[in-house]
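Researcher: Next entry in the queue.
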Amino acid sequence: MSIFSIGAILVGLSALFGYINHRFFHLPHTIGLVVFALLASLSIIGLDLITPSVQIGHRVSSVLREIDFNETLMHGMLSFLMFAGALHADFSAIKKSRLTIGVMAVFGTLISTFLIGVSMWFLLGFFELKIPFVWALVFGALISPTDPVAVLSLFKTVNVPESLQAKMAGESLFNDGVGVVLFTVVLAIALAGEGHGSEMGSTEVIKLFFTEVAGGAILGLVAGYIGYRAMYGIDESSLEVLITLALVMVTYSLALSLHMSGPIAMVVAGLFIGNSGVKYAMSEKTKDDVLTFWTLIDEILNSVLFLLIGFEVLIVAESIEYLWFALLAIPVTLFARTLSVTIPVAILSRWETFTTGAVQVLIWGGLRGGIAVALALSLPDNEYKYPILTITYGVVLFSIIVQGLTVKPLVKWVVS
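Model: Structure for this entry, 416 residues:
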C-alpha cells in the first residue's frame, strides 16, 4: 500500500471518528479518537476470534507495520508537534517558572526513572517475569517523561491558572527531550552489557548526555535566530510560513544527523520564534497566518497520532499475556510521578509560589502518550521488548483515557 493511501485512510478515519464524537459523544477530540480507534481495534480482534478465516486483524496490523509508529513519530511528526507546542507557549510565563520547570524536567525525570525501574524490577521478579535491572530502568526512562503532545492537547479542554499551565507546559516540553536522552543513555548501557555495543563508562555517559541536551539547545537557538533574521527583513506571509516550515525540517534533520536532541532543538527554536519572531519580525497578517498554519498542523497531526495510539493495540495484542502486568505498572508510575512532583515542589516552595491544588494537578495531569509507545517500539527485538511494550501501552491507555477524562473535574475541585 502506498504512503498516500495509508495517509488517506488515517486522515479519513480521524475525520470520521472526530465527526461522530463531536456530534454524539462530546469527548475531548484527541481522547475521543483514542477511544474510537481502540473500540474499532477490539472489534476487529473479536471478529477474528469469531471468524478466524477472514483474518481482518492480520490485514490491518500489516498496514500498521508498514507505517512504523516509532519512525513516523520520532523522525517525523514529533518535530512539527514540538515546534507548534513551543510556538504557542507563553514564553514570559515559562520564563518566570524556569527554576521549577528545569528542576522537574531534569531531577523529576531522574527520580521517576529510578523509582519505576527499582519497583518494576522487584514486582516483575516477584511474579516470575525475570527482567534484568538495567532493562527495568529502560522502562522507567521511557515511561517517566510526561508527553508534551498529550499534555498540551489537554489544555485545549481544561482551564487552569496561567502560572500552573506554564509549569505543566514547560515541564512536558523539556522533560520529553531529557527523557529521550536518558532513554538513549540507559538503552546504550543495557545493550553494552549484552555485548551489542561499546562499553559505556561514566565519561561516555556524561559526554552523550551533554552532547544531546546542550547540543540540541544550542542548535535550536542558532536555527531560531537564523529564522528570525530571515523573517525580520521581509514582509511576505506565505514566504515566512515556508521559512518556519524549513526551519523545523532542516533543524530536526541536522539534530538527528549530529546525534543531538531533536525535541530540545524544536522547543528552543519554537520558543524563540514564538517570542522574538512573533513580536519583532512579523506583521499582524504574517503573525496570524503563521500561528494559524501551525495550529492546523498541530491539530491534524495530533488527530492522526492519537488515532494511531488506539490502533496500536492490534500490534500489542500479539503479546497480550503481558498486559495484566500493566495493572502493576499503573500505580507504580503514579507513585513515582507523585514523588517526582512533591519532592521538587517541597524544595522549591521556598522561592516560588504554587497555586492551591498545583501538586494534585501536576501529578494527575502528567499524561503519558505516543512518545513512550514509540520508544518501546524502537527497542531491539529481544526477550524484554514485548513485555516492556505491552506494559507501556497499558499505562499510556490508562493515562490518556482515565487521567485525561478526569483531570478537568479535578481542576475544578482542587484549584482555587
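Model: The mean pLDDT is 90.
Researcher: Noted, moving on.
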